[in-house]
Amino acid sequence: MKRLLLAIAATAASFPALAADLPPYSPPPYYQPAPIFTWTGAYVGANAAFGFGNFTNGGSPYFGSADGGLFGITAGYNYQSGPLVAGVEGDIAFGGISGSNSPYGGVYSNGNVNAEGSLRVRFGYAFNHTLVYITGGYTGANLKGSVTDYAASPNIYANESTFLNGWTIGGGIEFALTHNVSVKAEYLYSDYGSGNLFNGTIDSIHPGLSLSTLRAGVNYHF
Length: 222
Fold this sequence. Notes:
The protein is 11% helix and 64% strand.
């Protein structure tokens, strides 16, 4: 019993020395959790588009079909609740979507959309970083027309612009590459209404315009 007590005492006496040799305790490292992704917030961006369609009403015989490219800027705001996303988006683009025709002998004419824009609402469903949406609202375009009429006496040489007001509807898909940068592709059908060109001449017309637009863009989210 005496030997046992001495052994226990010796072991107890050695604990402080063993503890001194152990490395100091440090808590496990803390890692900041990744922020939850959301589509909520403002954004700006740039886009490029190809449009194709037809001049309508009195514009059809003078300008025929239309096609061409546009480049523009976009700004908007999204609000997300669960997987549902609602927002408003506006854009303006410049370029040339044009068509030309000769409605009858001695008359040569051209119509060109050199600027267009829209203000639309968007409603979508988010699959985390992917947003599928529909969109629609107001659209407008500046149509510049020109006509040379050698059949008239005196001959007519006219260049004139009119602003068209109409509506647009479409849909698209947007994918967030990072928390701040996304890319998108969308399709829009636009009916720009109609305007008046070459008033006061025998070539006075009331042209309209309808277009299908394929557009790709990149957005920066704040």
